UniProtKB/TrEMBL annotation:
The protein's name in its UniProt record: Flavin reductase family protein
Record-annotated Flavin reductase like domain positions: 8-156
Stretches that traverse the bilayer: none
Enzyme Commission number(s) from the entry: 1.5.1.-
GO MF annotations, alphabetized: oxidoreductase activity
SUPFAM superfamilies in alphabetical order: FMN-binding split barrel
Lineage of the species this protein comes from: Bacteria, Bacillati, Actinomycetota, Actinomycetes, Kitasatosporales
One family name in Pfam for this protein: Flavin_Reduct
This protein's UniProt keywords: Oxidoreductase
Listed InterPro entries: Flavin_Rdtase-like_dom (IPR002563), NADH-dep_flavin_reductase (IPR050268), Split_barrel_FMN-bd (IPR012349)
Length: 162
């Protein structure tokens, strides 16, 4: 095991679901690489695997939606992380509403925002999408905790990892 892998294995950060619509196609996937990256102006970076259908749709998208799931939403994480949109219509299996530009916004998540795509960063097997928030919502603070990386360790990726 490399020092970097040992470092990464110790992290337990929230996971997110990213959704997108472009050229008449919807897509969405669970992402584990995502973070705020600027305060002023507010910016958020999400990294999409180049093997993922969501990446293929997002390449031509103007906006992406980023959703923070609660620990009680493991089944939703399993749908967006363990299935591939190449074989399954994920949006037929969950409740959502159209957001700005028709981007699917998943119902009942802890928080979500839609961001305008400001640019891309090629990092190898993932491409970063730099987002500028356009709109979003967050539930009132409750005892619901965010779904984290260790909570989804049992989910096998719906697309190949290499």
């Amino acid at each position: 095991m490399t020092a970097m892998q040992s470092f990464v294995d110790r992290l337990d950060h929230p996971v997110f679901v990213v959704t997108v619509v472009a050229d008449g196609e919807q897509a969405g996937c669970m992402v584990t690489f995502a973070s705020p990256c600027s305060i002023k102006p507010a910016r958020f970076m999400v990294w999409l695997s180049t093997l993922n259908r969501t990446y293929r749709v997002a390449r031509s998208a103007d906006h992406l939606a980023v959703h923070l799931l609660g620990r009680d939403q493991h089944m939703l994480a399993e749908l967006f992380g363990g299935e591939t949109g190449d074989r399954v219509d994920k949006f037929a299996r969950t409740d959502w509403t159209p957001g700005p530009g028709g981007v699917p916004v998943l119902d009942d998540t802890l928080a979500w925002f839609v961001g305008r795509v400001e640019g891309h960063v090629d990092a190898g097997d993932h491409i970063g999408f730099l987002l500028s928030p356009v709109t979003g919502e967050a539930q009132e603070p409750t005892e619901r905790e965010p779904l984290c990386l260790t909570d989804v360790a049992d989910i096998t990726a719906g697309h190949p990892v290499s």
